[in-house]
Specification:
single chain; alpha+beta; 21% helix; 7 strands; two-stranded antiparallel ribbon
Length: 112
């Protein structure tokens, strides 16, 4: 199992997996209009997003997995799933149906 740590405690801080903030990658061309590889980060977040949201709103599901949120997300992102956009062009949904099923919402944030 990889080593998980936080780079800080602020909501914008990221979780790290083996020292890197990349929990996964969405390859260029996977989502219409995105022509570059996109790293997937897990923010510490708030009750509205990130690891804090996962612990706050999905505590039972996380508890059933027997892992911390960062480990569950990392494991889920290693599975195949369906990808589609949602009500906002900046949000991407990943439907991962392999047991245990999960829906992961990703927000595309452009840093220039």
């Amino acid at each position: 199992m990889p080593d998980f740590a936080k780079e800080g405690d602020s909501p914008s801080s990221r979780w790290l997996v083996d020292g890197t903030s990349n929990f996964g990658m969405i390859r260029a061309g996977t989502v219409s209009g995105i022509d570059m590889d996109l790293p997937i980060w897990l923010k510490v977040g708030t009750s509205a997003y990130g690891a804090t949201h996962i612990l706050t709103k999905h505590r039972r599901w996380i508890s059933d997995q027997g892992l911390e949120p960062a480990a569950v997300i990392y494991e889920k992102l290693g599975q195949r799933g369906r990808m589609y956009t949602t009500e906002s062009g900046a949000k991407i949904k990943l439907a991962l149906r392999i047991n245990p099923a999960a829906l992961i919402l990703l927000e595309y944030i452009r840093y220039d």
